[in-house]
Specification:
The protein is mostly helical and 141 residues long. Helix content is 79%, strand content 0%. It has one domain. It has six helices and no strands. Helix 2 runs antiparallel to helix 3, helix 2 packs parallel to helix 4 and helix 2 crosses helix 5. It is globular, with a radius of gyration of 14 Å.
């Protein structure tokens, strides 16, 4: 497994863990924004659309930082998480990331945003099971 792939996956999962520390309403806002990206990408079913969504997410992040936002600001955090999901999804066919890392990123993001939305922000961003999942895949990195 490549160290770049491992570093990227660790960075994404670390960001998800930080998001779980945010107030419930902020987590819900981020989850809704991420959900809209994922729904568009899955509906399109074309890699080019997923790449375009990733590019749009990167632009949103730059705009948020330019407006004084930080990495926990939903205007930056949501597109960052969405971009990571898109990149990992594209990586499954293109091989940009090791497959294990791509799958771990996709799974963690999808479970996280679904859990927050299902509980209307009352549950934390990650469950204990998801944290255990992270420890398992890190052990294989």
């Amino acid at each position: 497994m490549s160290s770049a792939s491992t570093s990227y996956a660790e960075s994404v999962l670390s960001h998800l863990e930080k998001v779980q520390q945010l107030p419930a309403e902020v987590q819900t806002d981020i989850a809704r924004r991420v959900d809209s990206y994922i729904k568009m990408a899955k509906a399109a079913k074309e890699e080019g659309v997923v790449a375009m969504l990733a590019s749009n997410a990167a632009e949103e992040q730059a705009k948020a930082i330019g407006q004084g936002g930080d990495t926990m600001d939903p205007r930056w955090a949501a597109p960052a998480i969405a971009e990571a999901w898109c990149y990992a999804t594209i990586s499954l066919s293109k091989g940009y990331l090791d497959q294990l890392h791509a799958q771990a990123i996709i799974g963690a993001i999808e479970r996280s945003h679904r859990a927050v939305l299902a509980n209307d922000g009352e549950r934390s961003w990650h469950s204990r099971e998801q944290q255990d999942h992270r420890r398992v895949w890190l052990a294989f990195s």
